[in-house]
Amino acid sequence: MKVGDLIKHHNGGTGIVLEVRKRSIMRRQSVTGKVVGEKELKPMITILWTNGQTTTWAEPLEWYEVISEAK
To answer: Do residues 19 and 4 lie in contact, with contact meaning Cβ atoms separated by under 8 Å?
Structure first.
C-alpha cells in the first residue's frame, strides 16, 4: 500500500491513501505506566474517503484491499 492507491476498507468504505507512515508504540501497564513490552512499529494510514472525510488510523493492513495502485 502506498500514497495514491485506491483502497477498500473491510467495512465497505473506499478512499485514496494520502499518507503511510510508521508509528512507534510502547507496551505499558495500564496502572503504573511501566514499559512491559518492546517498542513496535505500526502503520499509520491517512485516507481521504469518498464521502469527503479524512481519517488517520493505526489499523491492520489486512483490513484494506488495494483496488487500484497509484502509478
So the answer is: no
Give residue 3's pLDDT band: very low, low, confident or very high (50, 70, 90).
Answer: very high
pTM, two decimals, is: 0.71
Question: What is the C-alpha to C-alpha distance for residues 41 and 26, in angstroms, rounded to an integer?
Answer: 9
Report CA torsion sign: 57, 62, 64, 69. positive
* Residue corresponding to grid cell 494510514: 45
User: Is the CB of residue 66 less than 8 Å from the CB of residue 6?
Assistant: yes
Per-residue CA distances from 34 to 13, 28, 38 (Å): 38, 5, 12
